[in-house]
Amino acid sequence: MAQKAKKANQNLAKAKDAKQDEFYTQPDDIEEELKHYKKHFRGKTVYCNCDDPDISEFSKFFKAKFNEWGLKRLITTCYKNENPSERSRNDSKHGVCLDWDGKKKTTRPLEGDGDFRSGECVALLEQADIVVTNPPFSLFREYVAQLVEHGKKFVILGNKNAITYKDVFKLIKENRMWIGVTPMGADLLFDVPEEYAKTMVATGKEGSNYKVVDGIVKGRAQACWFTNLDTRKRHNDLILYETYTPDEYPKYDNYDAINVNKTKDIPMDYDGTMGVPVTFLDKYNPDQFEIVGIDRILVEKLTGKVSRFHIEGKEIYARIVIKNKKAGA
Questions:
Q1: In the chain, how many domains are there?
Q2: The predicted structure's pLDDT at residue 17
Q3: pTM for the model
Q4: How many CB atoms lie within 10 A of CB 194?
Q5: Fewer CB atoms < 10 Å away: N or C end of the chain?
Q6: Is residue 210 located within the same domain as residue 277?
Q7: Considering the domain boundaries, does residue 111 fall inside one?
Q8: What is the radius of gyration, based on Cα positions, of the chain?
Q9: Is the CB of residue 19 less than 8 Å from the CB of residue 45?
Q10: Average confidence (pLDDT) over 234-250
């Protein structure tokens, strides 16, 4: 009986992940982020590999911007859909592919289900220069790993919690991926399937799990943009005003660094290690700061135990450890 219960719980968790992956990005949010990367797209092939060719707002955006931005080619592919009336016009066996060069549009069924990991989708990925989409959050690690393996440029959405994943954080620390232009605190809303919207209203909290906009239920997700395309924002120095005092910046019990509660409170004159909130990444300039690591990974290396930082025996929220390269300058 215990095994059956465990399996049932696993199936429920998978079902929940599948529903939470069906968060569809709003056109205004796409426009607001992508406008900062226009120069990167000229003469490039763009691949949206988690997008229904007819319905995806990413697909619509690049169709509209194709000539203005000087794109070379647009490819969009989507996963099969069990319910063709919802998001796709394909059946339950095959994904769909759109291939457009600005003059000739070809829409065809894929041989397989359209999974981004499938051989035919990987073959299309290899032809692309830049990947732009909202991938399944539950598969984010695997999705990013594939992009890195194939050396692709990208602008994608992901859960903010992904920052703390070891393999994802490693890329951020090594300046191979960073946060996009849209602030991490921005309230991103998403279209969701009708049945899932009903579930959120019945079981969730308005303002936390969802919002109602013009009578339509929109899902809320702890999401932010991730990219490896350079922007002007990434090279803006964070202006610092505070100075270090031991009383205002206590050290952690289990790691040699001072605690900084807010990014704006980073002391201008401290050249040692500092623990800052994850939202620091919004202001991160690699010319000004060095990322040393993240709390749980650093503590594990020291003690063999996974733990966040502690101050006077009390665990605090997640911290990224940094050093100011320009301290005192």
A1: 2
A2: 44
A3: 0.88
A4: 10
A5: N
A6: no
A7: yes
A8: 22
A9: no
A10: 96
